Amino acid sequence: NRSSSSGKRASSLPPLPRTPPESSSPAVSLSPTRARAGECDRREGGGEMGSKTKGCCGWLIVALVLALVATAAVVAIMKRKPGGGGGGRSRPPKPLPVPGPPGDIDSKYGDALGVALQFFQVQKAGKLVDNQIPWRGDSALNDGKEAKLDLSKGLYDAGDHMKFTFPMAFTATVLAWSVLEYGDQMTAAKQLDPALDALRWVSDFLIAAHPSENVFYIQVGDPDLDHDCWQRPETMTEKRPLTQINPKNPGSDIAAEAAAAMAAASMVFKSSDTTYSDSLLQHAQKLFTFADTYKGIASDTYPKLQKYYNSTGYVDELLWAASWLYHATGDQTYLSYVTVQNGKDYADWGRPTWFSWDDKLPGTQILLSRVNFFGSKEISNAENSGLKMYRDTAEAVICGLLPDSPSATGSRTSGGLVWISGWNSLQHGINAAFLAVVYSDYMLTSQTAAVECSGKYFSPTDIRNFAISQV
Hints:
The chain crosses the membrane at residues 57-78. This protein has helices spanning 61-75, 107-122, 165-188, 192-208, 223-227, 252-268, 274-293, 298-301, 315-329, 332-341, 343-346, 361-374, 381-401, 426-445, 460-470, and strands at 2-5, 98-102, 163-164, 216-220, 242-245, 451-453, 456-458.
């Protein structure tokens, strides 16, 4: 939490910051272990909120840890909680104080944030720089060589040595979002530098994987060969084939996710490294155009991917990427794309779903709610109408998460943990927690007192308490 500040009343949240505050953070001493994933549970999650994901959820440890990073960063700073606890009121409560600067560190969350960020250091491929992990060394130095590219960087997906660009890019997008919204929190916890380092390591890989406008490399390695051999990445010897998408072999889902990641990252590095930021943004714009022009699902193009990351569509990634490009550029064309041109057909307004590597709609709804909360004079009536639909659906997502809401999802354990799938069961609860705290902070900053869920009112504190319960 940020500390409460009743002395200042902010009528609007400033644009997403272009760069976080400077920090200098020491290495974290704890070392998380890596585990090889087991067999995939192919059952689709139930519950009132819809789920896009079908088939195997894939090797998702990196993406899961990212969600923990994002959520821990939000709750790591706790000077005092704003009032208004309890939920399900019959009348709207009064607005709570606008959040102030970071307060005191809650070491429980600060330590979790440090360990989670250290995991990205553990997962690094390539020639390591300032390596703080004593049992890790250089690896995958020849990745991309067959295409005369340097694809040595990036993150290994889990206990294996695969580089799957789809979840890696999603990791970068949400990590960048976390830094943009909560960079000051990370600074207070002395964890901003590791976050920026991890983000740049992935961003470097994404740039290298996009050698021309309509070519993008989406995978390094053969998962069948890789998973047949349990070994250290420093000593692996199997072939590392490359998989690319292009106009004849499309993959709009992965290209658009990478565009979202690079657009968000361009904002993070805007002030500290303008040249790098500009390069990221140019790649993001070209990848989005490629994804939107040559439409198709990568796992349809390459059926072998269905065993690992079986994407169920690409329209959510197109909306997600365009939303981030709007924030990064201010270009109304991107806002019109998500609201007027494609909102009705792509956004599935009114139907809340679960935020994950496969379904970006809930994240898009929360991100565009930001625009609706704080507004812009340049937004047309038609665009505002679309933004309201995104915000209404975002609130339906929030209402589905709150346990005392009339529309609360029944997909929970007896202890209250959101439970959608037996495979990688923590991802949905942690992802939901991140969206909940972000939305609650938008409410606090805009002096929005409550969300209404079928006649009951819930304050930002109620929403934050749900997030803490998941962590």
